[in-house]
Structures are given as structure tokens and as C-alpha cells.
Write a structure and sequence with these properties.
heterodimer; A: alpha/beta; Rossmann fold; 2 domains; seven-stranded mixed β-sheet; 13 helices; 18 strands; B: alpha/beta; eight-stranded mixed β-sheet; 10 strands
Amino acid sequence: MTATRKIDKSKMVVVEGSYAVAHSVKVCRPNVISAYPITPQTHIVEDLSQFMADGEIQNCEYINVESEFSAISALVGSSAAGARSYSATTSQGLELMHEVLFNVSGMRLPVVMTVANRAVSAPINIWNDQQDSISQRDTGWIQLYAEDTQEASDMTAQAFKIAEDKDVLLPAMVCMDGFILSHVYEPVILLEQDLVDKYLPTYDPEFTLDPSDPRSFGAFADPSTYTEFRFLQQKAMETALQKIEDAANEFNELFGRYYGGLIDEYETEDAEIIIMAMGSIIGTVKDVIDARRSKGEKIGLLKVRSFRPFPKEAIKKVLKDAKVVVVLDKNISIGLNEGALFTETKSCLYNTDVNVPVVGYMIGHGGRDIPVGTIENIIDEAKSVISSGIKTESQFTDVREDLI
Amino acid sequence: MSLKSKSLLAPGHRGCAGCCDAMAAKFTLMAAGEDCIVVSPTGCLEVMTTPYPETSWEVPWIHSLFENASAVASGVDAALRAKGKLGKTKIIAIGGDGATLDIGMRSISGAFERGHDFTYVCIDNEAYMNTGVQRSGATPFNASTTTSPAGKVSFGNQRPKKNMPAIMVAHGSPYVATTSVGYPKDMIRKVKTATEVVGPTYVHAHAPCTTGWGFDTSKTVEIAKLAVDTALWPMFEIENGELTKVRKVKNPKPVEDYLKMQRRFKHLFTMEGGEAEIKKIQAIADKNIVDFGL
């Protein structure tokens, strides 16, 4: 099933992406919000603060913490005490949280956090790429990437549903490209409270910090037990694969909007060239595909919504008949010269009977614009891979030679 | 607050014989009672009481990381508020000096500034004991630790203790007290008072560590009392910024009586120039007598 949106235009309002997300958080009825302001996440937490000031979020506390480290640490306490817990951050803030991120996941606390993706310092840069969340890949958080503001907004409710599922109990990041989605004004349907109440059950964890039933959280595990904690986190991630699909389908049934579950496909059925990407770049790629399709070129798109858990099987299935796969990454593993989606896509095809050339392009670092022409050039290069094989496996896009 | 109250810290934990942490935790729970939630940073207390799947805690307890106990406690406080459970259940953070006044400083400062309703109990054994007796900001002047060792050209740690109670008073805490594991009734009373005062309150407990300080496991209380009796550890209460109660020290003992019982100060009695160094420590005690009217 590919993306479908039943849009009732009379319900649409033009709001900033941050507002749409803040509204979604509000109607998900959080109990504790804890956040530290950082560009470009600020508008989300400002909007939530205004909702609090106007009494629009009942049974909720907003903690104005002194750092991102404490923002996420406070949610360890609140989530363990049985509160639906939310934060938002980006870039340096997310990196400052790094140690705690492992802790939230290891303690199986279903915190949901929006990441308004931004480049990482040095050099300091406030614009969009996805290095920040990709660098937290192994912390045990579910990572979902949104294509536009409506999806980021809708994904927020889906993230709570997935994270709090008793068979999952893992924290989740909803990643939306900073500025490109957080600051854009476009028409969206704000999530309806009555529908969200039907969609998202009350957070009712089995174990909480409760004096009438005392439990110890965060115990010390020695070598005889530590492995099993990690094993069970991995199992929960595997369970989440299906839960992410279910959450998307249930959302579609209630709200009439679907963006794919783990992945989405666009014009892939007969595609010889398949482009893979995550986040707001998807819109640009779709425009290019439309133009090329009209000229008879067989090009399709595989949009990855879930980077963790990584949907190996779903990806393999889509790529198996392609002649070349092009992966776009707004991040780099320095020293490997590859973006993470590229590396992991290659990895999941290895040891299988799918033998398709995969090439990687690292693109849009620190907010560098990605015009249609850049995607066109990449597609042209990919065509030459079909005829004459891979010349450059992975490369930077648009490096300014005049600066080097 | 009777010493005969049921202990909410079950026996069988992995604390050393004569462990100050176990005493401090037990007294704290005696003061708080069953209706409390305890937050511990990483440290000896956390490690020795919760080797999975066992736990010594008969109250709900959570450990997250070394430097974030106060932030975790903030979250627990917010959750209780949001769920309308505030005012009944007491929230207590209890951690060592490293977790409190070094790596946890940002977290405790933020939580106190925001005015969360919880009590922070610092068990001050004056070094990083869990990792093997390394210097902390609470290590006293001239103490030898594994990262501030006495040597041919050093008498050990050359900085005075960070004045954490004063820092907490400066945060506007309505109740700040110092106490000692050598005085259980005093500690229980102060922790109980702290948990009953609304807002962020702070109790700093001096806690001799048998392994880290180097004394016989039977001497924890004796050493703790000597710190008070030599005026090196003043015991006081500060309410809303005012010094309201001080434990008087009749005929203060010379600091040598305290120092000579501990391996960490042994070099002061063997090295050339040690005598002058002991005088500097005596000056610290003398100043406490003046400053607090001991």
C-alpha cells in the first residue's frame, strides 16, 4: 500500500510545522513535558508552553530544565512514575543527551521525543541535516523520519502508540528536518482530540514507582545478566517492526491518512532506478521522478520511515528487481565516507540473493540547498552505473572546489 | 523516628562491614517512612543495594546515572503533581559527594532553582569511594587519595572542601542541614524535618568510609563523632537562609585525635613538615568554631 491522504480541505489550517507537532503532543495528553530550548526546536516548546499557560493541557507538568541532559533525565523519573512523557530537541541538545538516551531505552521507558534535525558542531551550524539523530542510532531508540509537517504531526501520535505498546516499551524519536519542516507554514489538518482519544489508549504501565508496590528501577547488572537486557531490547525492536505497520494502518482507518509503515514506495513497481531517502528531501525526489516518468524513465522511490528498527526485509523486497539503487544521506560516517542509510542498505543486501549495485550520495550537509538539478545529476550518474558499473561507490554531493 | 522502627533497607546488601552508606540510607528511610520514592545516582550505595535481581530497597527506588539524580527526582515530582498525588509521597534523592557536588552539580542546581518538592541527602565520605578512593570536591585539605596521593613533594589534596551547604542555601532552599552518621537521632530528625518542609531541602551527612579513609571497620561511629568533637564537621540547621540551630562542641578535641586514626592522614605524622600541616587543619577547625559559634 502506498501513501494515501483523504484530505478534507475544510479542515485544513495553515500553521507552522512546529505548531502542528505541538498540537499533536497536546492532544496526546502528556503528563510531563521536559525540554530545553534550542534552535530550530524552539517553536515546538514555545507553543507547548503557551498551551500550558492557557490551561489547554490538563494533568500535565512542564519542567523548564537547565539543560538537555536534565530534560531527558527528568523524563526517566516521570516515565518510571507512570507519566506519559515528552521532550523535543535537536543537534547539540541531542548529543548532550547521549548518555541518558541509552538509559531511557535500557530501562524500557516509552518516552517520545521530537528531533528537529540539525547539523552538529564544529563548525557550529543551525541548519538542517540528519547527523544529530543518526549519531544516536545505537542508543536503543525507535527512529521515525517524517516527510512533511502533516506526517510529523501524525507520526507523533503513532510514536506514542508504538512506544507504549506493552510488547515494545522502547522510547521513540520523531525526526523532522529542522527549519525545512519545523518552520514552514503549510496547510495541515490538526489532529482531532476525539479521534486521538480513540487511537491512543491511556498510558497505564504495569510497573511504576509506587509506594504501595515498591520496585527497584535501574538495578546493577553483572556479566551473568547484562546480555539478556540487550537481547530483550533487540527483541522489542523486532516486535516494533510489525507495531509500526499496525500503528500506521490503524491511523489510516481512523484519520484517513497513510504514509507507509516502515517504508513507503513511490513508482517502484517497474523501476530500474530506485532512490532511497529519509525526511523532507522525499518531496523533491518525487517531483523529479514525476518529471522523468513523463519522459518514460523507470525511476522509483523507497522512502524509509523507520530507521530503527531497520526494515531489512521490506527494503530487500522493494530493491530485488532494481538495476541500480541510489541512497541519499544527510549524514556521514567520517572515515568510512558513507552515509548511514547507504551503509545499512548495502549491509542488508549482503549474504542474500539480491545482487544490485548500490551507490551513495551524501547531501545537504549543514543545510546546503538540494535543488532539483542536483537530484537530476545524481539520476544521470546512476544510469551510467547500469550501463558501465560503479565508478564511485559513495561520494559527497556539491562540494565547492573553490573552498578546498 | 525511633531507632527501633522497621528498617526499609533490607539486610544482605553488599556494603562493607562498617559501611557509612548503609547507615545513612537506613537512617534516611527511618525518617521518611514507607510512603516515599528514592532516587539514587550511581555510586557505592546503588551498586551494593541492587545487584540484579536482588534489591535491598523496601520502598520504590530508581537509579539512572551518576550525574542526574536531581533531574530524575524533578521528573518524579512532576509526575506526582500531574497525577494529583502530590503532598503525600515524599521524594528523596540520596547520593555520594561526587554525585552531589561534582558531576551532579548542574542537576541539583537546576532542581533546587525550580523548587521541586524533594529532599536531597548527600552522603559525604569525602572521595570517590566506588571507583577506589579518588579525590572529589569534598575531599578535605591534606587528605591522601589515589588521585591526590601524599608523596615526596605533596601532602595530598591541597584544596579545602567545597562548601555545598552554603551553595544550597544560596539557591533559596528553605531547609539546609548538616549531620553525621555518628549521630543517628540527629540525622533522622533532620531528614524528617527536611521531608516535611515543602520545597527542595538539603541534608549533608558526614560519613566516614572504612576502606577509603583507612580505619578499623568497628570505628565508623567513633571517627564520625571525632569529626564533630574536633569541630572539623560543624552540625547546623539553616532555615530560610538563617542559621537557626548549631550543635555545640564542649571542649573541642585537638584535630590530631581525629587525623591519627585514619590512613589518609598518616603521612602528616611521618613526613617532615607534617606538624605544620596539622596546624593548618587545626586552623580550619578553629575557624568553624568561630563561624558557627560551636
